[in-house]
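Cross-posting from the chemistry board since nobody answered there.

I work mostly on the small-molecule side, so proteins are not my area. We synthesized NAP and want a rough idea of how it might sit in this target. Sequence and SMILES are below. Is it possible to get a predicted 3D structure of the two together?
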Amino acid sequence: MLSYSPPPNLLQNRIVLITGASDGIGKAVALAAAAHGATVILHGRNVRKLEGVYDTIVNAGHPRPSILPLDFEKAGPAEYEQLATAIEKEFGRLDVLLHNAGMLGERAPIEHYDVAKWLRTMHVNVNSPFILTRTCLPLLRRSEDASIVFTSSGVVARPRAFWGAYLVSKWGCEGLMRMLADELENTRIRVNSINPGKVRTNMRLQAYPAENRDLLPTPESIVGPYLYLFGPDSKGINGRTFECQ
Ligand SMILES: NC(=O)c1ccc[n+]([C@@H]2O[C@H](COP(=O)([O-])OP(=O)(O)OC[C@H]3O[C@@H](n4cnc5c(N)ncnc54)[C@H](OP(=O)(O)O)[C@@H]3O)[C@@H](O)[C@H]2O)c1
């Protein structure tokens, strides 16, 4: 899949919402999507970082993006509704929703796992994609060709000790993706997920602080599967998990 070569105008006229677009994989995917013609809605919780991504896109001459800040840890249903209303007002529809934002949370044996940290991680990693999907579905239904993409992880295929809420949240996202793909089977909305693999980001550094970062693939090098699922070449692909590496 890494060998996918998208045409330069692959995402022309497509409205693409990317959560966690302020850093790491989300930022790289946002820049790549904009470079391929998409109008990107940059979600994150840090406006200053989002403005940096915005400026990079505008300075490169790509379609002007939008910024929609929302802290998934703190937001209630009304704030999700406000986000959807803002998208409706500006664009009238949504073509792509990438659930990328996530947190690692604590890694500890279940016996000692901090309950508050568990709940927070589950909320950001799996409840938020559920609420955002539910809120955005009416906008996605207005698209001629919509695509929802969840973010998976190696811990789904290979569960392992001490990964706590992160592991369970990624299983939750994978289950949500498959259920939703089935529910939307006969619609114009496809639903899939991507496991990025090991990628040189802050989250990876937090998980493996002793690792040599220079040996890891950069976020920019793994955007191929994302662009594929965002664009028309993936029409009809539904309920599948793609690996970046
Ligand atoms: N890197 C890897 O090796 C790897 C492997 C498998 C899966 N993944 C998955 O890939 C996705 C992206 O990870 P990454 O490695 O790019 O991590 P990252 O560099 O830490 O970026 C995470 C993004 O999520 C945002 N975010 C975190 N908590 C949030 C909250 N409460 N509300 C709103 N936004 C929030 C962050 O915003 P801030 O900038 O404000 O922190 C940032 O934009 C995650 O779902 C992760 O589980 C990564």
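Reply from a structural biologist on the board:
Welcome over. Reading the output above for you: The beta strands are 15-18, 39-44, 66-69, 96-99, 146-151, 189-195, 241-243. The domain at 15-243 is CATH 3.40.50.720 (Rossmann fold). Happy to explain the token format if needed.
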